[in-house]
């Protein structure tokens, strides 16, 4: 989740998630801050109308446009195009062997799913 308190953005992550997941979450929330700042709240309200961006059933589907945008921002931040192109240059991948992509994901400190998303959604 992310919200703004006293003009300071605050990002919350799940401490039991894998560190790579936490990194992606932080990058995702930075994306919300950069792209959707106008919908973040300036105060903390602990009630059902608390306008904070957090994972819920809708965000989990990946179909809400602001979630898609924040995911794309996070993927670009964690796996910059130039570095990704350099890492993929000259590589040949066997569709039945995930090891090279898993190793590349480890180098970028992201999940293989995040790497797959980034490769499929290059900009």
Give me the Rg, rounded: 16 Å
Number of helices in the DSSP assignment: 6
> Spans with pLDDT under 50 lasting ≥5 residues?
43-53
Number of domains: 2
Distance between the termini: 26 Å
> What structural class is derived from the secondary structure elements?
mainly alpha
Global outline: elongated
Number of strands: 2
How much of the residues is beta strand, in percent?
A: 5-15%
Largest sheet: 2 strands, antiparallel
Could you characterize what this model shows?
This protein is mainly alpha-helical and 123 residues long. It has two domains: 1-78, no CATH class; 80-123. The chain is 51% helix and 7% strand. It contains six helices and two strands, in the order ββαααααα. The chain has helices at 19-35, 57-61, 65-78, 81-88, 99-108, 112-120; strands at 2-5, 8-11. It has a two-stranded antiparallel ribbon. A hairpin with a 2-residue loop joins strand 1 and strand 2. Helix 1 (19-35) packs across helix 3 and helix 5 (99-108) packs across helix 6 (112-120). It is elongated, with a radius of gyration of 16 Å. The protein starts with a strand and ends with a helix. Mean pLDDT is 81; it is low at 43-53.
């Amino acid at each position: 989740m992310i919200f703004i308190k006293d003009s300071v953005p605050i990002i919350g992550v799940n401490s039991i998630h894998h560190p790579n997941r936490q990194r992606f979450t932080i990058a995702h929330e930075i994306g919300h801050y950069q792209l959707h700042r106008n919908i973040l709240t300036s105060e903390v309200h602990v009630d059902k109308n608390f306008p904070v961006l957090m994972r819920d059933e809708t965000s989990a589907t990946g179909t809400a446009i602001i979630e898609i945008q924040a995911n794309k921002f996070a993927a670009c931040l964690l796996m910059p195009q130039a570095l990704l192109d350099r890492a993929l240059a000259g590589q040949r991948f066997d569709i039945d062997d995930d090891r090279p992509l898993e190793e590349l994901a480890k180098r970028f400190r992201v999940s293989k799913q995040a790497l797959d998303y980034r490769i499929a959604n290059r900009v």
